[in-house]
Amino acid sequence: MKNNRLEYIILYVLVASASLIIATLARLSAVSLGVDNFTAFIVFIVVLCIEVAIYLSIHVVLQGLMLPWIARQLLKVPYFKNKIKSTPPIDKIANQTTEPPSLADIRNEQLQNKAKEREEKLNIALNYTRKTFAPYISDEQIEFLCVNLQLYADKLNLEKLHSIKISKDLSSVDISHFGWNIWNHFSVGKRIEIAHFLKRVFPDILKDVEVESIKSHLKDDELKGIIKIQKSLTEQ
Predict the structure, then answer these.
(1) The domain containing residue 81 runs over which residues?
(2) Boundary-marking domain end, from 75, 96, 117
(3) Domain count of the fold of the chain
(4) Cystine design at 174: which of 51, 209, 224, 225 (Cβ 3.0–4.6 Å)?
(5) How many CB atoms lie within 10 A of CB 17?
(6) How far is the C-alpha of 185 from the C-alpha of 163, rounded, in Å?
(7) Using one digit for the tens of pLDDT, what is the confidence trace for 142-157?
(8) What was the pLDDT predicted at 91?
(9) Residues 166 and 223 sit within 8 Å (Cβ to Cβ)
């Protein structure tokens, strides 16, 4: 903004200086021709007024007629036409300026991110469960087991868990390893909670094992059994 004002000031100074010089030369010419000082002064004023009128006329013509015509001619040139199309109007750029998000927007975004993270984590656990138990239980039982996992992940009422009947190929060690992998993956609650979960979901295979014992031996014999301890379910 300051640069534009300075440019205008320089332009006006140059125009005024040129006009004064020309008007002064006209006055001196009139004096040299033998006219009196008053007439020479009138010549000076008239020439100065004519110069101002000419400048204003040229300025109006250039701004009102010549510049739009030049702009229309430039629009016919592909290079300038593409440049203008690719440059958004100033008012459009101003409208695109967005206000910083409110606290409510930030909270909503965080809640959405948490929900998305929870859904991704649940899907990983469900895929692991289906892959692990597919050879040992029926499709219906697998779906019941997946429902159980959702209840556990959401910390809902474990009284609603479905009991699962599994093949005799799996042992209590396998169930304990499965419980450890699930508990380590979700990181919800204490180990005693996953122990209660296993006891309710697999009552047949764990009927002779106390909950405290399940809790204490979740990670025992890591290399034994069909279901192994995994550091992360995402590394399957």
Answers:
(1) 2-96
(2) 96
(3) 2
(4) 225
(5) 10
(6) 22
(7) 999 999 999 998 888 8
(8) 55
(9) no
For residue 93, pLDDT beyond 60 = no
Domain endpoint, select from 96, 130, 147: 96
d(CA 236, CA 225): 17
> Which amino acid type is present at position 230?
Q
Q: Is the pLDDT of residue 232 over 70?
A: yes
Closest CA to 202 of 228, 179, 233: 179
- In the chain, the largest separation of any two C-alpha atoms, in whole Å, equals 136
Look at residue 133 in the predicted model and tell me its pLDDT. Answer: 94
Sign of the C-alpha dihedral, residues 91, 92, 93, 95? positive
Answer yes or no: is pLDDT of 227 > 70: yes
43 and 113 belong to one structural domain = no
